Amino acid sequence: MDRLDELLDAAAPLLRRAEDVLDSAGAPPGHPLWDDLRRVRLMPADAARAVAELRPSALAGAAPELRAGARVCAEVAGSLPPPDDWEGEAADAYEDLRRRTIRQLSGDHDSLEERFEATADLAAALHEWMTRTREGLASVLADVLTSAEAVTLTAPAAFPPTADEVQAAADLAVYVLHAIAVDYAEAEDLLLGSQRLATPLPL
Predict the structure, then answer these.
(1) Where are the alpha helices (DSSP H) in 26-111?
(2) Based on the structure, what is the number of domains in the chain?
(3) Are 149 and 92 in the same domain?
(4) Terminus-to-terminus CA distance in the chain, angstroms?
(5) pLDDT for 20-63, tens place per residue?
(6) DSSP for 139-179?
(7) How far apart are CA 168 and CA 45, in angstroms?
(8) Would residue 111 count as lying in a domain?
(9) Residues 67 and 47 grouped into a single domain
(10) For residue 90, what are the domain limits?
């Protein structure tokens, strides 16, 4: 259990309390919470739990292993012998196949070597993003737990919620959701930039 896990355990009741107020009374008209709810599509407690499920350790060793695969591709491509003194149609066919295999293994941006490298870059970037996102949310939850909104929402509850409780719930929720929305937009950009990795290798 790290700092985020500990803070989420402490903050979960407060987040749920904010959600209960919002379920009962809604957010104030025009409040920015509506925009972030559309972006994240989760309420604060569930969104925070989703971030807590990110495990950077699962990707910690991926980039070095992928770069090792890239080196193997380059080594194999460099080891394929030319026909030398071998001549004739069979030699020409072999040379054509050898050159195509080398291009597939190493060289241009569509080669297996380059795809290994690009996937390693993506794995490293996602590992960094997961780590930063978890640390960022931990800081947000630490702020939430000591906020004026927390004081308002942990006072004896009124029914229906007071205007102050509604405002506090919306402000607290948007503070959490906006941080998550920004971080997840960055992840979407990373994944969009790697779409070519899903295309088949050229023959």
Answers:
(1) 33-40, 44-52, 62-79, 89-105
(2) 2
(3) no
(4) 48
(5) 999 999 999 999 999 999 999 999 999 999 999 999 999 999 99
(6) HHHHHHHTSHHHHHHHSPPPSSPPHHHHHHHHHHHHHHHHH
(7) 15
(8) no
(9) no
(10) 62-105
